[in-house]
Batch of 2 targets.
Target 1
Amino acid sequence: MKTILDKQQLQLTILRLAHQLLENNDDLSQVVFLGIQPRGVQVSQRIATHIQLLSKNTEVQYGVLDITFYRDDVRDELHVAGKTDINFSIEGKRVVLIDDVLYTGRTIRAALDALQDFGRPSKVELAVLVDRRFNRELPIQPDFCGIAIDTVASQKVKLEWDKEEVVLY
Amino acid sequence: MQLSTKHLLGIKDLSPKDISLILSTAQQFKEVLQRPVKKVPSLRDVTIVNLFYENSTRTRISFELAEKRLGADTINFAASASSVKKGETLLDTVNNILSMKVDMVVMRHSASGAPHFLAKHLPNTGIVNAGDGINEHPTQALLDAFSITEKTGGLEGKKILLIGDIMHSRVALSNIYLLNKMGAEVMLSGPPTLIPPYIKEAMGVQVEYDLKKALKWCDVANVLRIQLERQNQVLFSSLREYNLSYGVTKKLLQEVDKDIVIMHPGPINRGVEIDSDVADGNQSIILQQVENGVAVRMAALYLLAGTAN
């Protein structure tokens, strides 16, 4: 077991991601932030809260997206569906997908499929807290990344919210 | 997380956990049905045959829509327009269809136990019971439970009244199984000739022959259809008499003066078991039941497809 980000580092990283996202999107009314169920929700909520604090005049559009029904392994393993909550249009908007760990890229592939059923965004970007490089099974890379680490497939990366740590097993 | 069964033959075989899983998954599918594109690709590689040996509007359309919105391929089969008329047996018909690489069978049949027979002979094909004789109609009970939960917040401790033709109603039996498993209280009301005498002890339900008293007791009243096609002996004297003693009328509801949720599985015999102004009134959630049916069937098919392997 190895701690990748301790409590303070995790807070700083989330704050940095929030600043980066704000820096890259000058008109917040044209941006929507979507956390991916289930594990991207908490990190995306924190990022969205920070962005809201930094830009008091505009309301941050934030929602959560569940990709269970778009998975490519429905027949191999059954996953319990989470809630999707997007109560605004994404048509023509810039969408920032937010997840905790980017690993094989299959979740993001499914998320891109799911997004199409809500409209046609002008641009889709990906922000992740942890990028597990060299484990990708699809050509998907993050646009914003908290920390990039090298891992092997047998290892597990976990965000432990009760201790506010990112740990490698 | 998956269902404890490969087939959906009846509520009798489901655990409370299975029922909760189907209902919570249906919640997510209901959200899918509000999207601009009301379709997900989950069952893209699954082919489902809808075998209807008995007439149906709601259930058949609801299953077909559910299948299409899951991205499955569907085949519709109506016994009245098929080789069944030439004398082909049920098992032969299904085996012939399955040899064309069909993955799941949704079946309605007038014989109780027909889907169980299929499941016994075809253990590797997912069989979904869309109503068998006077036995069970599991997806109807699931959508009723979903609608009650949506309207009143839950099932546990709720007082549910089933009114009418309990004897011939597969909807009633499935509802009783489900509501018992989920901790709701069940009461039956209707003419003594249409309520099996042993049901109180056998199913652990209450029976109240006085409809007004029963309505005063309940939170939700599920009015069942008088099944004219299954009445081969005279169990009540006339439809008018039935309406006078067991029809849910506006006057009766005013007398009871309680905010009861009114449900009906359809098709409605207006002016027999329920009057039009009740069926179309603001206490009625009959059309919401139909709407929820698609989401609930999507959930059942999705979970069964995931359990099949």
Target 2
Amino acid sequence: MDASSDTMTANPLALEVLQGFSGTKLELLYRQPSTALAVFRRMLPHLAKTIVMAMLYMPNPFLASDLDAWIRPDAVAEKEQALLVLSSLHVMKTAMQAQGLAQHKSFGVPCRPAGDEVVDIKILDEHARRQWEDILYYMVGSTTVGVEGKSHISDATKSLLELGNFVDKRGRITQTGFTFLLQEVNAQVWSLLIVYLNHAPELLKMDPVEILSFIFMLGSLELGQGYSTANLSSTQKQMLDDLADFGIIYRPSPSTPFFYPTRLATTLTSDASALHSSAAAPTPTFDTGLAGGSGAASKGYIIVETNYRLYAYTESMLQISVLALFTRLTMLFPNMVTGRLTKTSVQRAIAQGITADQIISYLAAHAHPQMLKSTPVLPPTVVDQIRLWQIEGDRMTTTSGYMMIEFATEAEYRDTVEYAETVGLLVWKSDAKRCFFVNRIEQIKSYMANRRGRA
Amino acid sequence: MVKALKGVLVQCDPSIKAILLKIDADSGNEYIIEDLDEGTLFVKESKVASLKEKLKVTLKETVRENTDSDSE
């Protein structure tokens, strides 16, 4: 496995949250086999998975030096990384008991009520897309001028977006919101759920462990299968309303004793590839980024010409709103919009926090099939100009941090500056003035204390 | 004894640095702690936002920008 797929497997956001949990909380979580599976499948780097698999059936603890013998000497960095993740998640101690995957209710109790209409995958996809697009549309809708906004999302979701700093008090999109918007759907769902996880415990008196284990459980459910709500805890029942509002689950009506996970839920803890393979399924799905409301969801629709004109074949208000963030739209037709990338429009977007690279990758990811025939996909002049517009607005780069001065000896200076450089904290140095600038100081401080101890 | 000073490192073109130095001199050395080299300044943290703002204003006044040709 190469490095890029490695980073996709280890979901950075969720991993961070888990690492922040205490040992006892994690132990509670690992009691649920579905959680253990989700953590194993989705969070761990590949090497960590291998180590866990190998150790799973060992009766006794085994020596760290034996572990070293398994790893090629040139991969020590990867090994350290894997071990760090494992120990911060307290997997090293608890993995064995948690992985005893017995037949357990934590994978959901399937239920198919007789006499009820069959909810097929198409309805689920439709529900998930509609709800999720409403959320996204609510976020961008505010910035679009002249396009009528209609959003059906609940007040709870709105305040959640505000808590997550995706929109500000007046409902206008923020910088974090933009970054959120341009992520792929799976990452978006995770970001939102993590905001939920961070705020629900204090606002709604929910137990974070239960929330998280429910989220992980959703990830192991099967699409198109109904599940009973009977064995859920009260916290988890409370969550159903919110999750239905996000489009992560579907309930025919709020009072029914069962729910259906949508594609947003079932791909939560699987590898990123699950999203791509689902795109190949006969039912239209949305795979990456902001796919459209129309049937041809994952098909590209944007044409950019060398003269900065932009044509987008779309009817989706969401897509139009996103384009309007960085394009000067001029005409709206029944099946397309035309516009132009101008310096003003691009710099306005940059001032709001979108980066040039985000714009470029959005345009490239949604390029019309006709554009994909040429390489590079986007006209180089346009790509370069967007980057130049960004640089132009940003004449000076600022880094806050600490200036280290007044080193007593040349040796002390050299030693410390070299250390700062290897750990990647060094921003600027001047050998002549014997001073250097770092963006964080804690590590340097402890290094210098150690150094004095040695001297 | 080694000291650590908190502040903001500003890196820019020499031309921009000249403008920043002038802004600093005009305001009675309110912004800059030290002039480090031709492209680097060490600036008081609390003053960075206002320095950026002043630079923007100055550039707008002095540099003539091509207006967008927005004709369709």
